[in-house]
Amino acid sequence: MREGLPDEAGGGNQGGFLFLRPGRPFLATDGLSLCRLPAEAYLTLMTVHFPFQNSYAALPDSFFARVAPTPVAAPRLIKLNRPLALQLGLDPDLLETPEGTEILAGKTVPAGADPIAMAYAGHQFGHFVPQLGDGRAVLLGEVIDKDGVRRDIQLKGSGPTPFSRRGDGRAALGPVLREYVVSEAMFALGIPTTRSLAAVVTGEHVLRETALPGAVLTRVAASHIRVGTFQYFAVRRDTEAVRALADHVIARHYPELAGIERPYHALLGFVVARQADLIARWLLVGFIHGVMNTDNTSISGETIDYGPCAFMDAYDPAQVFSSIDEMGRYAYGNQPRIALWNLTRLAECLLPLFSDDQEKGIAEAQEILGEFSEKFSAAYQAGLRSKVGLFTQRDGDEALIQDLLDAMAKNGADFTLTFRKLSGLAADVSADDARALFTDPAAFDQWAARWRQRSAAEPQAPSERQALMRSVNPAFIPRNHRIEAVIQSAMTNDDYAPFEELVKVLAKPFEDQPEYAAYQAPPKPEERVCQTFCGT
Ligand code: AMP
Ligand code: MG
Questions:
Q1: Which of 192, 307, 359, 468 has its CA 20 to 30 A from that of 14?
Q2: pLDDT, tens digit, for every residue of 497-534?
Q3: Cβ-count burial of 82 within 10 angstroms (0-12 exposed, 13-18 middle, 19+ buried)?
Q4: Alpha-carbon distance 161 to 69, whole Å?
Q5: Catalytic residues
Q6: What SS3 state is found at 97?
């Protein structure tokens, strides 16, 4: 049975779960007498208990619709993220029981939950939709994690809500596995992101182009508040709701702003700063979100809503993954510009809180938005310098690095491998596997000669340079062809071993893991996945 829990009294509330054990004494409800449980009572009394708080559900009624998840036929747990469960103060052993699985599938609502679908609006591919909202997700509640951070626990794919419009409220297995793999890989890469606590199959089919196995993802986020959440109230000219939402966001994500002179200006500034940092981090690992709509832009600065996202193989700043992004709006290299566009929509929502004088408010907002480019560039350039192993900043560095990127684009060089192999070259001048990634290896040689000269101007030892580079240049990213293979294996053979292995490899992206070297390889031409489709 369960090992290692310090529970000398035989009962207690550890890790967010009430647990009682047979044979051991526990305090009766009068708080005084000690009782003993018979062994057969153990299973029935061991109850999954989330220590939920429901601060969002305490906001005005217009912020959400109360709706429970819709029970499913035959839930089966595919994956539980045990380390994350522990981080959230939840007991992974209990979550893996049939009762835990029913909760993670939305078949049972745990005590203390106050399930809601959140209201939001959003610009989708530039077109405003005044009402979107959680059409296939419910927020069960919030828990405070081991670091004292409040985390939403949301079921995605849990059935229709008042915001479902024409959708069925469900998710298919493929997108659920994709979100699990990519979000956890992003976490391991050190990039702010929502996380995945669990994936279950529902035992039901969802109808897309064909009938597909249904699944539910348990998503964990610092919050699910989006730019589109502000837009929902702003378009209704409900300034008091915008203010209540802003106050909630400040209390939750930016508590240092409470009580300062211009909190809403500062709030916009903080969101701008976090988005600038986030997008820089995306670019530095070759990540393409794919659907950077305002409803998919988190106020907390986490990456959210992994739909048709992907990591680049060969470096190409114009690369797009979404099948419906014909204009390249959300292409890799366009992501900073789009983030600023989305932040401008947030600023518009906050204007009534800035000043009664609209002109003055606009000028102030523009000044804050104006900080985005500088903040993004600083983070991006600093990240690039680390990727090529530079400890200092000099005139000419930006051009030097841009020349490498240009050569990569021209020569079809793999983004991730180029930087990882370059890390090897930092300590071993005879290594020649980076140049082999370029269709014209001489293009790399010419650049590498300049890079060596620049590096030599710094006092750090080659081993130090290499250590820096290896800590920022991953060996393993969730390559699209690997994700597709994992999904195929799950769907056609009910075989989750490839999924498990991929998740395991991606948990340590900066380690060489020689036994899994094949996972570093870009796709062969016949394996290449050019587009991913919306995660519906
Ligand atoms: P997404 O593309 O997943 O970011 O979703 C955009 C909007 O469509 C959100 O309001 C979702 O809740 C809603 N939506 C997506 N898929 C479904 C579905 N299968 N059923 C109901 N609503 C959905
Ligand atoms: Mg979305």
A1: 192
A2: 999 999 999 999 999 999 999 999 999 988 888 666 54
A3: middle
A4: 8
A5: 295
A6: coil
